[in-house]
Amino acid sequence: MAGDLPGGPSDAAEPDGFPRRRGPGRPAGRRSGAADTRRLILDAARSEFARAGYAGTSVRGIARTAGVDPALVHHYFGPKESVFVAALDLPFDPDSLVPDVLAGGPDEMGERLARYFFALWEDPEIQPRLLALLRTVLSGDAAAGVISDFMTTELVRRLARELDAPDALLRANLCGAQLMGLAFTRYVLCMEPVASTDVDTLVASVGPTLQRYLCGD
């Protein structure tokens, strides 16, 4: 289901499972500076992530495929995780997600994680992209493994590194499983009463479970 990847209907699906962006009015055989350089790098990034997976891709490899200096990739996008976020037009950035969840210390961390989760999913502009992302992960197509690898590396493991608790990686994974299951139930299957329950009630219900995963004995 490559066409379900975030990015919108203007993205043409390529055989590697990633959308290829088409710049408006781009003359054939010409580059028009920064905008075309960015597109060139993003095209190369999608190709490299599809070929080598998230863990096997490097900024240097993306630059080599794009025919540019690695410093230019860093200039436009930053580190690898930021290139990935831009290449797939992901609706969240781990650089802000994890610090926001951790802000304020361990107390009520589970509630903050739940509220962050629902703030994304309930946003009418972001929800379609999250649905596309979730369906892609569930589909098992060429892009699913890369997205899963990214989430494991940049979200779950990053959160685990910040937890002052035994079995931190398992705890972070359990949070991810809980939230992915909730997203599937509420937004894909639309199962009642979860689908129509107000967010505050859901946060009050799932927050303590997440808190136990993150900080409990």
TrEMBL record:
Residues 25-35 have a biased composition (Low complexity). It holds the Pfam family TetR_C_16. The keyword DNA-binding applies. Keywords: DNA-binding. Residues 35-95 form the HTH tetR-type domain. Residues 58-77 bind DNA. It comes from the Bacteria. Residues 1-37 are annotated as: Disordered. PANTHER family: HTH-TYPE TRANSCRIPTIONAL REGULATOR RUTR, TRANSCRIPTIONAL REGULATORY PROTEIN. This is TetR family transcriptional regulator. It comes from Streptodolium elevatio.
